[in-house]
Amino acid sequence: MPTLDDDTPKEACGVFGVFAPGQPVAHLTYLGLYALQHRGQESAGMAVSDRESLTVVKDMGLVSNAFDDRTLATLTGDLAIGQTRYSTTGSSTWRNAQPVYRGVDHVEFALGHNGNLVNVEQLAAECGMLPGTVTSDSDLVAEMLATELAGRGDMDPGEAFDEALTEVLPRLHGAFSLVLADHDRIIGVRDPNGFRPLCLGRLDSGWVLASESPALDVIGGPPWSGN
To answer: Who's near 203: CB < 8 A, 6+ residues apart?
Structure first.
């Protein structure tokens, strides 16, 4: 069962999300992840939505190892999320690379995570997961959302996902930020105390989320002031 890293505190993982219809969102995500590379060098990945389906590409190593121009050219869509990983729970394997993907009935979603949960064992037990089957706390959150979605097959996909988030997020204890994508949206989440950073930026044609503001700057999305 995953436990918190007992070493000295570390910033772990970089997350990024962009909603920009008509723009090369995969390329923008690549640039954002490159700016967040120092936050995690074990694996990199992104999920791109064309409003009909989600495509996830991820690999071990640096951002430049996971993506080349040919791969990016095939990832067309209106929105994307991405993550660079430094493992604090779960082993450094391709299986634990992110974004984590789930498809339940008519709902697809992907999730990128930074931080740690402190109640992993409790949540896993509540979900009926056997000891040792939780590969990471990120995977656990995705499984919890999938479980909630499984009982909402007759709902609008967006409404079903919103309800699943409403049920799951209050049960998460720890220091974390999340970026999520379904077919039509990117969603940013921070723990109630804001221990893990998540910046919001404004683009001419959309929005961007990132663990650090340089990832906003590199794609021309200055931090949003609320005006």
So the answer is: 18, 20, 23, 219, 220, 221
pLDDT one-digit tens code per residue, 52-107: 999 999 999 999 999 999 999 999 999 999 999 875 554 556 677 899 999 998 89
Residue 127 bears catalytic tag: no
Q: Residue holding tokens 């700057």?
A: 217
9, pLDDT greater than 50:
no
Of 36, 106, 112, the closest CA to residue 79 belongs to 112
Take residue 120 and report the two structure tokens written for it. Answer: 């992993």
Note whether 187 and 179 are within 8 A (CB): yes
Catalytic residue among 13, 26, 47, 199: 13
Q: Which domains occur in the chain, in start order?
A: 14-217 (3.60.20.10)
17 alpha-carbon distance from chain centroid: 8
Going by DSSP bridges, is the β-strand pair 14-19/79-85 parallel, antiparallel, or unpaired? antiparallel
Whether the upstream peptide bond of residue 99 has omega within 30° of 0, thus cis, is yes
Residues 207, 195: Cα–Cα separation, whole Å: 22
> Considering the entire predicted model, what is its pTM?
0.89
